[in-house]
Amino acid sequence: MELHTERLTLRDFRPEDAPSVVAYQSQPAYLEHYGQPPPTTEEVRAFVERLCRWATEVPRTKYQLAIVRKGRVIGTCGVRRESPGDLVAEYGCELDPAAWKHGYALEASRALIAFAFATLGIEGLFARTRPANVGAIRLAESLGFHRVADGHYTLSRPQAR
After folding, report:
1. 32 in a domain, yes or no?
2. For a Cys-Cys bond, which of 6, 123, 132, 145 suits 155, CB 3.0-4.6 Å?
3. How many domains does the chain have?
């Protein structure tokens, strides 16, 4: 599965993406928003393998895609349903700190959210973030999410006019 934007490709993860993910998930600026120590190479390899498995599930409920810029994985963006018939899904996005403040998260998220509403038939999305993660909050608000509680946001499918 692939989605394309002006500057990015969103695609299913591949096992060989693990080193790029280890590199950005080990950055102090990234870790500041997760409150945990840097992941081990083995933990990231298992994470990427899980994302690869999700891409092969039938029926597919989780679309956690690699964000690729100029051939390099710079993050991940996803919509995940618990069950195939669910009309509400969780949204999430993370980026390599070196890719922050270039509009990549917004660009990738817009493409994936449009896909979720138009192709998957999702009616609503929810997102969670740490209240101190100002960048994630700004992204959510830029995408049209509404705050429902500290760190909790929702977005409804736009109504046809």
Report:
1. yes
2. 145
3. 1
**Are the CB atoms for 75 and 107 separated by under 8 Å?**
no
State the pTM of this model. Answer: 0.94
Domain residue limits at 98: 2-156
What lies within 8 Å, CB to CB, of 15 at 6+ separation is 45, 48, 49, 52
CATH assignment of the domain containing 38: 3.40.630.30
Per-residue tokens: 70: 């100029």
Helix (H, G, I), strand (E, B) or coil at 112: helix
Query: What is the torsion angle, in degrees rounded to the nearest 10, for the CA atoms of residue 113, residue 118, residue 121 and residue 122?
Result: 20
Distance of CA 90 to the CA centre of its chain: 9
Residue 161 lies in a domain: no
